[in-house]
Design brief:
- The protein is 32% helix and 13% strand.
- It has helices at 2-31, 51-57, 68-71, 113-116, 119-136, 205-219, 246-255, and strands at residues 38-39, 100-104, 141-144, 152-156, 174-183, 190-199.
- It has a 6-stranded mixed sheet.
Length: 272
Protein backbone atom coordinates (compact mmCIF):
# COMPACT_ATOMS: atom_id res chain seq x y z
CA UNK A 1 0.00 0.00 0.00
CA UNK A 2 2.82 2.42 0.91
CA UNK A 3 4.59 1.62 -2.35
CA UNK A 4 1.37 2.23 -4.30
CA UNK A 5 0.91 5.57 -2.59
CA UNK A 6 4.46 6.59 -3.40
CA UNK A 7 4.03 5.61 -7.04
CA UNK A 8 0.74 7.47 -7.18
CA UNK A 9 2.32 10.57 -5.64
CA UNK A 10 5.23 10.38 -8.08
CA UNK A 11 2.81 10.05 -10.98
CA UNK A 12 0.85 13.09 -9.82
CA UNK A 13 4.10 15.08 -9.44
CA UNK A 14 5.20 14.19 -12.97
CA UNK A 15 1.78 15.06 -14.36
CA UNK A 16 1.85 18.38 -12.52
CA UNK A 17 5.30 19.22 -13.91
CA UNK A 18 4.23 18.33 -17.46
CA UNK A 19 1.08 20.41 -17.18
CA UNK A 20 3.09 23.28 -15.77
CA UNK A 21 5.64 23.19 -18.57
CA UNK A 22 2.89 22.96 -21.20
CA UNK A 23 0.93 25.85 -19.71
CA UNK A 24 4.00 28.05 -19.31
CA UNK A 25 5.20 27.26 -22.83
CA UNK A 26 1.82 28.31 -24.22
CA UNK A 27 1.86 31.49 -22.18
CA UNK A 28 5.34 32.47 -23.33
CA UNK A 29 4.66 31.55 -26.94
CA UNK A 30 1.63 33.82 -26.89
CA UNK A 31 3.32 36.67 -25.04
CA UNK A 32 6.59 36.80 -27.01
CA UNK A 33 7.22 38.29 -30.42
CA UNK A 34 9.62 35.66 -31.67
CA UNK A 35 12.41 36.26 -34.17
CA UNK A 36 15.37 34.23 -35.42
CA UNK A 37 17.26 34.78 -32.18
CA UNK A 38 14.38 33.95 -29.83
CA UNK A 39 13.09 30.43 -29.30
CA UNK A 40 10.40 28.96 -27.09
CA UNK A 41 9.29 25.37 -27.33
CA UNK A 42 5.49 25.62 -27.28
CA UNK A 43 3.08 22.72 -27.08
CA UNK A 44 0.04 23.11 -29.33
CA UNK A 45 -2.37 22.00 -26.61
CA UNK A 46 -4.09 23.14 -24.53
CA UNK A 47 -5.23 26.32 -26.26
CA UNK A 48 -3.19 29.34 -25.17
CA UNK A 49 -4.80 31.83 -22.79
CA UNK A 50 -5.76 35.36 -23.73
CA UNK A 51 -3.09 38.08 -23.50
CA UNK A 52 -4.65 39.31 -20.27
CA UNK A 53 -4.62 35.82 -18.78
CA UNK A 54 -1.06 35.27 -20.01
CA UNK A 55 0.06 38.41 -18.20
CA UNK A 56 -1.38 37.09 -14.94
CA UNK A 57 0.47 33.77 -15.34
CA UNK A 58 3.90 35.35 -15.74
CA UNK A 59 6.17 36.63 -12.96
CA UNK A 60 5.81 40.33 -12.26
CA UNK A 61 8.76 42.47 -13.43
CA UNK A 62 11.02 43.25 -10.47
CA UNK A 63 14.56 44.48 -9.90
CA UNK A 64 17.20 42.03 -8.66
CA UNK A 65 19.97 43.12 -6.30
CA UNK A 66 23.12 44.06 -8.15
CA UNK A 67 25.89 41.46 -8.06
CA UNK A 68 28.66 42.79 -5.80
CA UNK A 69 31.03 43.24 -8.73
CA UNK A 70 28.61 45.68 -10.38
CA UNK A 71 27.45 47.24 -7.12
CA UNK A 72 31.07 48.25 -6.44
CA UNK A 73 31.47 49.71 -9.93
CA UNK A 74 31.57 53.52 -9.90
CA UNK A 75 30.28 54.81 -13.21
CA UNK A 76 31.74 58.06 -14.50
CA UNK A 77 31.09 60.76 -17.04
CA UNK A 78 32.19 58.62 -19.99
CA UNK A 79 28.51 57.76 -20.45
CA UNK A 80 26.82 54.61 -21.74
CA UNK A 81 24.69 53.32 -24.62
CA UNK A 82 21.79 52.04 -22.55
CA UNK A 83 19.34 53.64 -24.99
CA UNK A 84 20.46 51.10 -27.61
CA UNK A 85 19.66 48.06 -25.43
CA UNK A 86 16.59 46.09 -26.46
CA UNK A 87 14.48 44.67 -23.63
CA UNK A 88 12.41 41.59 -24.42
CA UNK A 89 8.79 41.06 -23.47
CA UNK A 90 10.17 39.20 -20.46
CA UNK A 91 12.32 42.16 -19.51
CA UNK A 92 16.06 42.78 -19.61
CA UNK A 93 18.25 39.68 -19.98
CA UNK A 94 19.94 39.84 -16.59
CA UNK A 95 21.21 37.02 -14.40
CA UNK A 96 20.24 36.75 -10.75
CA UNK A 97 22.15 33.61 -9.68
CA UNK A 98 25.94 33.67 -9.64
CA UNK A 99 28.35 32.53 -10.81
CA UNK A 100 26.84 32.22 -14.28
CA UNK A 101 27.59 28.70 -15.53
CA UNK A 102 29.47 28.50 -18.85
CA UNK A 103 29.90 25.24 -20.78
CA UNK A 104 32.36 24.97 -23.66
CA UNK A 105 32.03 22.80 -26.74
CA UNK A 106 31.98 19.18 -25.46
CA UNK A 107 34.92 18.29 -27.69
CA UNK A 108 37.04 20.94 -26.02
CA UNK A 109 39.11 20.18 -22.92
CA UNK A 110 42.68 21.30 -22.13
CA UNK A 111 44.05 17.75 -22.02
CA UNK A 112 41.91 16.09 -24.69
CA UNK A 113 43.59 14.65 -27.83
CA UNK A 114 41.58 16.92 -30.11
CA UNK A 115 42.91 19.95 -28.23
CA UNK A 116 46.54 19.00 -27.76
CA UNK A 117 46.83 17.68 -31.29
CA UNK A 118 45.18 20.59 -33.10
CA UNK A 119 46.65 24.11 -32.89
CA UNK A 120 43.38 25.66 -34.15
CA UNK A 121 41.42 24.04 -31.33
CA UNK A 122 44.01 25.04 -28.75
CA UNK A 123 43.94 28.63 -29.99
CA UNK A 124 40.14 28.69 -29.87
CA UNK A 125 40.10 27.35 -26.31
CA UNK A 126 42.69 29.82 -25.03
CA UNK A 127 40.95 32.75 -26.73
CA UNK A 128 37.52 31.86 -25.31
CA UNK A 129 38.95 31.31 -21.84
CA UNK A 130 40.62 34.71 -22.13
CA UNK A 131 37.29 36.39 -22.92
CA UNK A 132 35.61 34.59 -20.01
CA UNK A 133 38.35 35.82 -17.66
CA UNK A 134 37.84 39.39 -18.89
CA UNK A 135 34.10 39.41 -18.15
CA UNK A 136 34.59 37.55 -14.88
CA UNK A 137 35.87 40.80 -13.41
CA UNK A 138 32.39 42.28 -13.72
CA UNK A 139 30.00 39.30 -13.68
CA UNK A 140 31.03 36.11 -11.81
CA UNK A 141 31.46 33.28 -14.32
CA UNK A 142 32.35 29.62 -13.87
CA UNK A 143 33.31 27.07 -16.53
CA UNK A 144 31.45 23.81 -15.90
CA UNK A 145 32.17 20.33 -17.22
CA UNK A 146 28.59 19.23 -17.96
CA UNK A 147 25.86 20.99 -19.96
CA UNK A 148 22.96 20.07 -17.67
CA UNK A 149 22.93 23.27 -15.63
CA UNK A 150 24.76 25.53 -18.08
CA UNK A 151 23.45 29.06 -18.50
CA UNK A 152 25.68 29.78 -21.49
CA UNK A 153 26.97 27.18 -23.96
CA UNK A 154 29.78 28.19 -26.31
CA UNK A 155 30.15 26.05 -29.43
CA UNK A 156 33.21 25.83 -31.67
CA UNK A 157 31.01 25.97 -34.72
CA UNK A 158 30.13 28.25 -37.61
CA UNK A 159 26.78 29.94 -36.87
CA UNK A 160 23.79 28.63 -38.79
CA UNK A 161 23.06 30.51 -42.00
CA UNK A 162 20.87 33.56 -41.59
CA UNK A 163 17.96 32.75 -43.92
CA UNK A 164 15.50 35.58 -44.57
CA UNK A 165 12.88 35.67 -47.35
CA UNK A 166 14.06 37.69 -50.32
CA UNK A 167 17.52 38.22 -48.83
CA UNK A 168 20.87 36.59 -49.77
CA UNK A 169 22.23 33.98 -47.41
CA UNK A 170 24.44 35.49 -44.72
CA UNK A 171 27.32 33.70 -43.09
CA UNK A 172 28.66 34.96 -39.76
CA UNK A 173 31.76 34.21 -37.73
CA UNK A 174 29.87 34.48 -34.42
CA UNK A 175 26.31 34.58 -33.19
CA UNK A 176 24.37 34.48 -29.92
CA UNK A 177 20.89 33.08 -29.40
CA UNK A 178 18.70 32.73 -26.34
CA UNK A 179 15.57 31.00 -25.17
CA UNK A 180 13.28 31.20 -22.16
CA UNK A 181 12.16 28.22 -20.11
CA UNK A 182 10.54 27.32 -16.81
CA UNK A 183 13.10 26.13 -14.28
CA UNK A 184 11.20 23.55 -12.22
CA UNK A 185 14.09 22.65 -9.91
CA UNK A 186 13.15 25.13 -7.17
CA UNK A 187 10.05 24.34 -5.04
CA UNK A 188 8.24 27.11 -6.93
CA UNK A 189 9.24 27.28 -10.63
CA UNK A 190 11.01 30.40 -11.86
CA UNK A 191 11.24 31.96 -15.30
CA UNK A 192 14.75 31.36 -16.62
CA UNK A 193 16.78 31.83 -19.78
CA UNK A 194 19.86 30.34 -21.38
CA UNK A 195 22.18 31.29 -24.21
CA UNK A 196 24.01 29.50 -26.99
CA UNK A 197 27.02 31.13 -28.62
CA UNK A 198 28.51 29.96 -31.94
CA UNK A 199 32.16 30.84 -32.61
CA UNK A 200 34.21 29.81 -35.61
CA UNK A 201 37.73 28.57 -34.93
CA UNK A 202 39.44 29.42 -38.25
CA UNK A 203 40.44 32.91 -37.10
CA UNK A 204 43.41 34.43 -35.32
CA UNK A 205 43.48 34.20 -31.54
CA UNK A 206 42.94 37.95 -31.11
CA UNK A 207 39.93 37.89 -33.41
CA UNK A 208 38.38 34.84 -31.72
CA UNK A 209 38.87 36.43 -28.31
CA UNK A 210 37.31 39.69 -29.54
CA UNK A 211 34.34 37.77 -30.96
CA UNK A 212 33.94 35.79 -27.74
CA UNK A 213 34.19 39.01 -25.71
CA UNK A 214 31.49 40.62 -27.85
CA UNK A 215 29.11 37.65 -27.80
CA UNK A 216 29.57 37.08 -24.07
CA UNK A 217 28.60 40.72 -23.58
CA UNK A 218 25.28 39.90 -25.25
CA UNK A 219 24.84 36.77 -23.15
CA UNK A 220 25.49 38.69 -19.93
CA UNK A 221 22.70 41.13 -20.69
CA UNK A 222 23.86 43.70 -23.24
CA UNK A 223 21.26 42.81 -25.89
CA UNK A 224 22.15 45.66 -28.21
CA UNK A 225 25.15 47.43 -29.71
CA UNK A 226 27.29 50.48 -29.17
CA UNK A 227 27.93 53.02 -31.91
CA UNK A 228 31.50 53.63 -30.74
CA UNK A 229 34.53 51.66 -31.94
CA UNK A 230 36.06 52.01 -28.47
CA UNK A 231 33.48 49.64 -26.95
CA UNK A 232 33.57 45.84 -27.03
CA UNK A 233 29.92 45.80 -28.10
CA UNK A 234 30.49 47.99 -31.17
CA UNK A 235 28.01 46.98 -33.85
CA UNK A 236 30.54 46.20 -36.59
CA UNK A 237 33.76 44.29 -37.05
CA UNK A 238 36.89 46.43 -36.89
CA UNK A 239 40.57 45.83 -37.53
CA UNK A 240 41.54 46.54 -33.92
CA UNK A 241 38.69 45.35 -31.65
CA UNK A 242 38.31 47.18 -28.36
CA UNK A 243 38.68 45.70 -24.91
CA UNK A 244 35.82 45.92 -22.43
CA UNK A 245 35.34 49.64 -21.93
CA UNK A 246 34.05 51.86 -19.16
CA UNK A 247 30.99 52.55 -21.31
CA UNK A 248 30.38 48.80 -21.66
CA UNK A 249 30.32 48.40 -17.88
CA UNK A 250 28.31 51.59 -17.31
CA UNK A 251 25.73 50.13 -19.68
CA UNK A 252 25.83 46.70 -18.05
CA UNK A 253 25.36 48.21 -14.59
CA UNK A 254 22.35 50.20 -15.76
CA UNK A 255 20.82 47.09 -17.36
CA UNK A 256 21.09 45.21 -14.08
CA UNK A 257 19.18 48.02 -12.35
CA UNK A 258 16.11 47.45 -14.55
CA UNK A 259 13.03 45.31 -13.79
CA UNK A 260 12.73 41.89 -15.39
CA UNK A 261 10.51 38.83 -15.17
CA UNK A 262 13.56 36.56 -15.35
CA UNK A 263 14.68 34.88 -12.16
CA UNK A 264 11.34 35.41 -10.39
CA UNK A 265 8.80 32.81 -9.33
CA UNK A 266 5.68 32.13 -11.34
CA UNK A 267 2.51 33.23 -9.54
CA UNK A 268 0.38 30.49 -7.99
CA UNK A 269 -2.21 31.00 -10.74
CA UNK A 270 0.29 29.60 -13.27
CA UNK A 271 0.77 26.32 -11.38
CA UNK A 272 -1.87 23.64 -12.13
Amino acid sequence: MKLWRRLHAARRWCLRQNLLLTAISCVMALYLSLDTQHSVQANESPAPPSPQAAEALLPSPQVHPLPPTLADWLSNDQGDYFAEIQPTNMGYLVWSEFPVQVYLDPAIAPDSPITTGNPLVQTWLEAVQGAIAEWNTYIPLEIVETPDAADITIMRQTPPLDIQPGQPLRSRSAETRYEFYADTQPPIPVLSHRFQIFLRSDQSRDYIQASARHELGHALGIWGHSDSETDALYFSQVRNPAAISVRDINTLQKIYQQPTRLGWEFPSAAIP
